[in-house]
Amino acid sequence: MRFARSYTDYVLKGWPSKKEVDTLCAPYWQNRYEISVQYGLLMRGCRIIIPKSHQAEVLNQIHKGHLGIIKCRARARCSVYWPGISRVIDEKIKSCTACIQESSNRHQPLIPTSFPERPWEVLGLDIFKYKNSWYLLISDYFSRYPQIARLDRLTSAEIINHCKSIFSRHGIPDVVRSDNGSQFDPVKTVEFKDFAKSYGFTHI
C-alpha cells in the first residue's frame, strides 16, 4: 500500500517539507509530530490511522447500534483517526434512515410554566379515581396546597359546583389549568367555558 509505505518512511526517516509530501499523506502533515509506528500500525497518539480504503467499513462499525453524534465521536476519539473523521461521522448519522426515524419519534421536551407571583393566582385541576370513587383535585401552583372534593357524577356541572364552593373560601384565581378531559373541553361542552367567563378567570 503506497499510503502505508510512504507514511512509514516519513515517520521513521523524517518528514520532508509540506510541498514535497506525497499527496496521500499531505492531510496528515500538520499532525506529523503526533504520529508513530507501533507493531506495524500507523498511530496518532493511541488511535489507529485508518487508510481511505477501510474508512467506510470502520465508519459503519463506529455507528453500529445507531449511536448519536456525540457517542460516535467519543468512540472514534479513543480508537481510530483520519482527517475529517468528525465531519464524516456527522454526515453518516444525519443521512441514516434509522437515526432520522428515531429522532422524529422523540417527544418534545416539556416546557416549564412560569412560577406564580402569589398564592391562588394559578390553579391546576385534575380528576382521579381512588377506591372506586372519583375525585376533583385543585392544586395551587404557588403553595402546592391541594383541595380535594369527591365527585358524585363526572359532569361539568358537578365540577363547577365544587369549584364555586372552593373559590368562595379562597378567592377566584387568575388562571385555571386542566387536562383535556371532556368536562373541560370547550368542543364537547360549553359549561366550563361559560363558567370561566362569568367568574373572570382564564382557562388553559
Automatic annotation (TrEMBL):
Protein name: RNA-directed DNA polymerase
Record lineage: Eukaryota, Metazoa, Ecdysozoa, Arthropoda, Chelicerata
E.C. code: 2.7.7.49
GO BP, sorted A to Z: DNA integration
Gene that specifies this protein: K02A2.6_203
A molecular-function term among this protein's GO annotations: RNA-directed DNA polymerase activity
Pfam family of the protein (one): Integrase_H2C2
Top-rank EC class of the record's enzyme: transferase
Domain Integrase catalytic positions: 115-204
